[in-house]
Amino acid sequence: MAITVNIFYSGENGNARKFAEEMTASGVVSDIRAEEGNLRYEYFFPMEDEETVLLIDSWKDQKSIDVHHASPMMAKIIELREKYDLHMKVDRYVSDEAGFSEKDTAFIKE
Predict the structure, then answer these.
(1) What angle do CA 105, 107, 110 make, to 5 degrees?
(2) Domains of the chain, first to last
(3) pLDDT digits 0-9 by tens, 4-55
């Protein structure tokens, strides 16, 4: 049962994008991706909102998230969030073990 968290970081004067860029350039993103249980850690930029960045953060299970939250990595993330004065909106999703139905797959082109 994978858990995916969508985090919308928002700020002013391009700070959300600067945050994502520094997270990547500093190696924090690659370190998080290397953590056991991390399935996905990617930033996206909404077309209609230049002051927001979407992080899709997916983990194998709750235990993996708990270990990540207890790691020294979180102090680095919090420090950068504060540096760029970001606010967050968070959505959490748990995977559907049943997967896609045949009706769903008819609309998916691989």
Answers:
(1) 75
(2) 3-95 (3.30.70.100)
(3) 999 999 999 999 999 999 999 999 999 999 999 999 999 999 999 999 999 9
